Amino acid sequence: MKKVSRLIPIILLCGLILAACSSATQPAPQPSEAAVVESNVTEAPTAEAQAAAPATVEPQAAPAIQHTNVPASPPASGGEKWGDHSTVSSNNAARALLGDDFSESKFERPYNANTMDVYFPQLDIDGAVVYPEDAAWVYAIISMVSRDANNSFAGQYAIELDLDRNGRGEFLIVVDQPSSADWTTEGVRVYKDANLDIGGVKPATADSEGISSNGYEAVLFDQGTGDDPDLAWYRLDPSNPNSIQIAYKQSLLGGVTKYTAGIWAGTRLDPALFDYNDHFTYEQAGAANSEIKNFYPIKALSELDNTCRYAIGYDATGLEPGICP
Ligand SMILES: [Ca+2]
Ligand SMILES: [Ca+2]
Ligand SMILES: [Ca+2]
Ligand SMILES: [Ca+2]
């Protein structure tokens, strides 16, 4: 019995030593516990990301736009054709002696603002043709001096339609940075002046009354979204690298066959600021003609070109505001 009683303290001692040993090794699990906490922390964003995943799927699930009517090709001949001044042939850079008349809404300023030391050939309209004869489509070809240094059309290109020939446009069809060789509605928008407030007191002529206009405020067609998903299209001209083709449905015109059309090009065209010469003063806009010393050079209105308005489907009377001479 004495041996047993002597063993008890030894066992207790060993037990204490083991306990001490185990407590000495206890710090080891702690980091792993901390790691578990850390992994919990990293799990939290993963769970959040998973929760957010369905939201990002939703836009992808939006139904694709179904097109039924695709334009064909403009006729090989005919059409209403008109030209525009270009400044590329000018011996003097940084000016346009012809074609820029702020007061009459004629712009010839394919240059950067203020210094006018950068010329944009992709914004310099050379000419246009409109083919109004097709039963379903009107085709318009807009020709620029050339593409830009990257062989692209960096800018926005538009045709403005004045259906009742009073100088106040009704529709503006804008193509954004055209790059597709095939007909597409991508980048194509059709705007309308639904509240008929464009032009101020004097349509086509600058007047301060027009500054309250909200321009083309209604979006009829946005890249296939709208009442008619096929209303307007564009493609790069297969036969001319400097041209783009626009096609809009005859139905847009509501049966009107005699109207005027003008072409616009700009780095950015703002439908809300039509008419531009009502929303800026001459002093703010500047002038491209260096002989107009009061206002030269171009300032707030730069990187912009347009044509006069051309009579489509009839012979111009010459009295239409903004009409080509
Ligand atoms: Ca031009
Ligand atoms: Ca009008
Ligand atoms: Ca006006
Ligand atoms: Ca308006």
Secondary-structure blueprint:
Layout: H1 2-25, H2 29-60, E1 80-83, E2 108-109, E3 125-131, E4 137-144, E5 156-162, E6 171-176, E7 188-192, E8 218-222, E9 225-226, E10 232-236, E11 243-249, E12 259-266, H3 276-279, H4 282-285, E13 304-306, E14 310-312
Antiparallel strand pairs: 1-3, 2-13, 3-4, 4-11, 5-6, 5-12, 6-7, 7-8, 8-9, 10-11, 12-13, 12-14
The structure holds calcium ion (CA) (4 copies).
What is this entry, summarized?
With 325 residues, the chain is α+β, with helices and mostly antiparallel strands.
What does this structure look like?
- This protein has 325 residues and is an alpha+beta fold.
- It has 2 domains: 2-60; 80-312.
- The protein has 4 helices and 14 strands.
- The chain has helices at residues 2-25, 29-60, 276-279, 282-285; strands at 80-83, 108-109, 125-131, 137-144, 156-162, 171-176, 188-192, 218-222, 225-226, 232-236, 243-249, 259-266, 304-306, 310-312.
- Strands 2, 5, 6, 7, 8, 9, 12, 13 and 14 form a 9-stranded antiparallel sheet that branches. The chain has a 5-stranded antiparallel sheet with strand order 1-3-4-11-10, with no helix packed on it.
- It is globular.
- The N and C termini lie far apart (132 Å).
- One calcium ion binds at residues 193, 195, 197-198, 213-215, 217.
- Residues 162-164, 166, 168, 170 line the site of one calcium ion.
